[in-house]
Amino acid sequence: MSDIISLQQKIVPELIELLQKRYTIMRNIYFSQPIGRRALSYQLNIGERIIRTEVSFLKSQGLIDINPLGMTVTKDGEKLLEELKEFIHELKGLNNMEKTLANRLKLKKVIVIPGDVDNDQLIKKDMGKSAANYLKSIIKNDSIIALTGGSTVMEVANEMPQCYTKSDIMVVPARGGLGRDVEKQANTIASVLAKKLGGSYKMLHIPDNIGKEAIATLINEPDIKNVIDILKKADIVLFGIGRADVMADRRNLPPSTRDYLEKVGATSEALGFYLNINGETVYETPSIFLTKDDLKNVKNLIAVSGGRSKADAILSTCSSGMVDVLITDEGAAFEILKSC
User: Fold this and answer.
1) 71 alpha-carbon distance from chain centroid
2) What is the pLDDT of residue 10?
3) Any residues with CB less than 8 A from the CB of 308 and at least 6 apart, and which?
4) How far apart are CA 103 and CA 171, in angstroms?
5) What CATH number is attached to the domain comprising 111?
6) Do 112 and 141 fall into the same domain?
7) Of the residues 31, 58, 90, which one is the last residue of a structural domain?
8) CB neighbours of 336 closer than 8 A, spacing ≥ 6?
9) Judgement on whether residues 131 and 280 belong to the same structural domain of the protein
10) 73 and 202 fall within a common domain
11) Does 106 share its domain with 223?
12) Cβ-based neighbours of 32, under 8 Å, separated by 6 or more
């Protein structure tokens, strides 16, 4: 396929550009449906006249429907989007990028999604879908899945196909709650994913920013102790990666701690560990229930994070030995390759 793509790029590059444009339009309609032309034009930063022309073509091919509520992708359109995904992947040279990143970062596997979530938030849904597909391929009937909160991990649960058979899969939060966005908290995501997989879930009713003394008291409560015991038996850990400065702010860490993190060069935060660019732990939050020793016994450590602005944070976390599989986007991947 690569030879054909190379030939097309040399002889008819305008066809490749048109293909990518129509693929992007269909993909955005799919993730935002139903959506109007004006909203789509604004979302893609493409003139409404061009959008009108392209959607008229897509409708004539039976790939989208247009009704008073907005545009939607048809079943044929959904099938085509899935078929085009691998072609676009090859077209952008992402297969080679994945192999190069996996080799340089010493990871089992890297999956790179086209685009940059910093420029297009819908890329987060693409990452979620790819992560869900990978997760589905490794889950066993008796798997214990531990996961963190966050918008990217939330998309993994949202994009997981619904399973209609019962299983012994258990999903547990790896962290306590953070902030007011309940739908992005680990407890909520664990319940959504468990229901999608036909399994069961446990909740960890501990605030994420609680102090050491309170933690020491709470972990002896029978219900909480039971969840932590299950958590430590997880064979899959799914988590996001954040920039240290952003996460310190989001977790309302005291000014003295933030100053310390800046002083020691904290670059990333993952699973409660603040790491420098070399992957060394420089600070740990009190509410860590999966220690570094626990993580060594986990068979599948899956990190999902993207965006050019997070490249250093992703590189930092991958250098820590806490990641086996990385699902990221093109924007972050390009920046990481410049640094390693």
Assistant:
1) 26
2) 59
3) 116, 118, 331, 332, 334, 335
4) 31
5) 3.40.50.1360
6) yes
7) 90
8) 101, 105, 311, 314, 315, 328
9) yes
10) no
11) yes
12) 39, 40, 43, 122
- Token pair 């790819």: residue: 130
Same domain? 80 vs 110: no
Q: Tell me 242's DSSP state.
A: E
Assess contact for 156 and 163: CB atoms under 8 A.
no
Dihedral sign for Cα atoms in the order 321, 322, 325, 330: negative
Domain match, 74 and 183 both? no
How confident is the model at residue 251, as a pLDDT?
A: 85
| Omega of the bond leading into 114 within 30 degrees of 0 (cis) | no
Rounded CA-CA distance 219/98 in Å is 40
Are residue 158 and residue 86 in the same domain, yes or no?
no
CATH number of the domain that residue 17 is part of = 1.10.10.10
pLDDT digits (tens, 9 = 90+) for 71-111: 999 999 999 998 888 888 887 889 999 999 999 999 999 99
Last residue of a domain, one of 90, 116, 149: 90
pLDDT for the residue numbered 210: 67
Q: Identify the pLDDT of residue 3.
A: 60
Number of domains making up the chain = 2
| 50 shares its domain with 148 | no
Count the alpha carbons within 13 Å of 224 in the hemisphere toward its beta carbon. Answer: 16
- Reading the block at residue 54, the tokens are 């392209």
Residue ranges of the chain whose pLDDT lies below 70 = 1-13, 177-181, 208-211
Instruction: Report the pLDDT value the prediction gives residue 177, as an integer from 0 to 100.
Output: 63
- Smallest CA-to-CA distance from 204 within 223, 220, 189 is with 223
Q: Provide the domain limits for residue 322.
A: 92-339
**Burial of 16 from C-beta contacts in 10 A (0-12 / 13-18 / 19+):** middle
Q: Alpha helix locations (H) across the chain?
A: 2-11, 13-32, 37-44, 48-60, 75-91, 94-105, 123-138, 151-159, 186-197, 212-218, 222-231, 244-250, 255-263, 292-296, 311-318, 330-339
